[in-house]
Specification:
The chain is of the alpha/beta class. It is built from twelve helices and eleven strands.
């Protein structure tokens, strides 16, 4: 015998039980709406009896806001991206919003994914340190008429607001830290081979080196922000470069690349000072003790959401600066 499918209670059901109109039920569930306390209590009691929950999506559509923010990501295997996503969803939920995660790592599916966000009428799109290709920018600006904000990476596109730390200042601080250790030969390990202006970390690093009479001696490209790619990039460099010609200090574009590099050094028995970026949880592990740079992601996310949801720009000093986290991996010897 088939079980009878239970029907969801409607606002009309609640109105009938409470002895009020359907519109009174709607006001009872609308924060700040004018309604007598005893009437609200009667509605809530009837709703509890029937197991009624208001359809927030339907209500949002009538108000021209869905309280859904599209969150575009392209590096979900990157631990820092997971931390960013956690912070974004936490802050959105505290504001009464939901996140629609849009995976833009597969370019051939970008139009379909962004079209879905359009159909769901998101109130804005937050790009999380995403590599904004010309195609992705074209899709976002073509099918959406909502605010677009990028955090953690720069873009020159006039329709996309940028919320990012001062990467040049961060790179300069890391360069000065390594110079203080007495290094004279320096390298830089990047992830995707994108224009350096997207982050500005390398520019700041080079500036510090040049001001001290040094130079950036080599640039390694991992291709992706993955641990094994950092490991492979440094292994290849060690295999191809005579000991006397190797750099002694390496600034890695993010922590997971730095941890891969440290693994390569450990396996080869090679000494090299390493600095990462992002301050992921694994960076503090005893086996790595990775010196890194904390972007204070919670402040970047807050500023990005303030712009998307409220249209308010905060004071630059409240989110533009990160913090150097000094551990052991940068120390010479």
């Amino acid at each position: 015998m088939c079980a009878t499918k239970r029907q969801k209670a409607t606002a009309s059901d609640v109105a009938l039980l409470a002895g009020v109109s359907k519109w009174t039920v709607s006001r009872a569930f609308t924060p700040g709406a004018s309604i007598q306390p005893n009437t609200r209590d009667a509605v809530m009691k009837a709703a509890k009896t029937l197991g009624y929950r208001p359809n927030l999506l339907a209500r949002s559509l009538t108000q021209k806001r869905t309280h859904i923010i599209g969150v575009a990501v392209d590096e979900l295997r990157n631990p820092n991206m997971v931390l960013l996503l956690n912070e974004v969803t936490r802050q959105l939920q505290s504001r009464g919003y939901m996140a629609l995660v849009i995976n833009v790592s597969e370019q051939q599916n970008n139009r379909m994914a962004m079209s879905l966000a359009y159909q769901l009428q998101v109130d804005g799109i937050l790009f999380m340190a995403t590599v904004l290709t010309p195609e992705l920018i074209a899709i976002a600006t073509e099918i959406h008429r909502v605010p677009l904000v990028q955090i953690g990476r720069n873009t020159d596109h006039p329709d996309i607001q940028v919320v990012n730390i001062d990467g040049a200042e961060a790179g300069r601080a890391i360069g000065e830290l390594l110079l203080a250790q007495g290094h004279r030969a320096f390298g830089y390990l990047k992830g995707p081979d994108t224009a350096s202006r997207h982050l500005m970390r390398k520019e700041g690093y080079q500036t510090a080196l040049e001001q001290a009479g040094c130079a950036l001696n080599c640039e390694l490209i991992a291709g992706e922000y993955l641990r094994h790619r950092g490991y492979e990039a440094l292994c290849a460099y060690l295999d191809e470069t005579p000991v006397a010609q190797r750099v002694t200090a390496l600034f890695c574009e993010n922590d997971i690349l730095a941890i891969g590099a440290l693994q390569a050094l450990r396996e080869r028995g090679v000494t090299m000072s390493i600095v990462g970026f992002d301050n992921i949880e694994e960076a503090a592990a005893p086996e790595w003790q990775l010196t890194t740079y904390d972007q204070r992601r919670e402040r970047l996310v807050e500023e990005g959401l303030n712009r998307l949801i409220d249209g308010v720009n905060g004071d630059l000093e409240s989110w533009r600066r990160g913090e150097l986290v000094v551990r052991q991996s940068h120390r010479r010897g």
